[in-house]
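Sequence, please.
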């Protein structure tokens, strides 16, 4: 058994995702299992719906019928999750031995937010390190951390030319 917490997918009855998640969280609190079950997540997306000319932001489940649990797999944690009301079991070829999500799957699903530290911010001058514009210096106009991109304005031929690049394709100019 591993001592590191990994993400597992739990199948629930349709519409029971919130109930299962809160039941697991309550059990963790009551049994003091914070070191074994570290997170419970229901992936959602915020969608803007327009009805009758009014725009409303609605949270929609990305994977209806599933809850993600980050835990150290032990007999105790397996039993706790597996016997939670509304839970039908772990997603796995063998329900007695669940398989955790890979790091790539976790990243692709956006379950865990990875902190990215940049040496630059909006308004700073940067040097483009990669791309057709390698070597050019520009000014950061916008950062999109969700997509991992930076929009840089590069002066070329007397005009400002926008370029959208990955965060790692530019570096801050040292003062």
């Amino acid at each position: 058994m591993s001592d590191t917490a990994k993400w597992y997918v739990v199948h629930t009855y349709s519409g029971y995702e919130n109930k299962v998640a809160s039941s697991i969280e309550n059990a963790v609190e009551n049994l003091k299992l914070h070191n074994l079950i570290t997170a419970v997540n229901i992936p959602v997306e915020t969608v803007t719906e327009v009805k009758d000319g009014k725009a409303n932001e609605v949270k929609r489940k990305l994977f209806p019928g599933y809850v993600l649990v980050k835990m150290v797999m032990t007999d105790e944690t397996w039993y706790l999750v597996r016997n939670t009301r509304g839970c039908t079991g772990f997603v796995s070829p063998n329900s007695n031995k669940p398989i955790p999500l890979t790091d790539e799957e976790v990243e692709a699903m956006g379950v865990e937010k990875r902190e990215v530290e940049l040496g630059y911010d909006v308004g700073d001058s940067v040097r483009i390190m990669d791309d057709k514009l390698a070597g050019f210096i520009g000014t950061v106009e916008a950062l999109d951390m969700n997509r991992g991109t930076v929009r840089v304005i590069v002066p070329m031929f007397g005009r400002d030319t926008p370029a959208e690049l990955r965060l790692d394709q530019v570096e801050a100019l040292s003062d």
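The mean pLDDT is 87.
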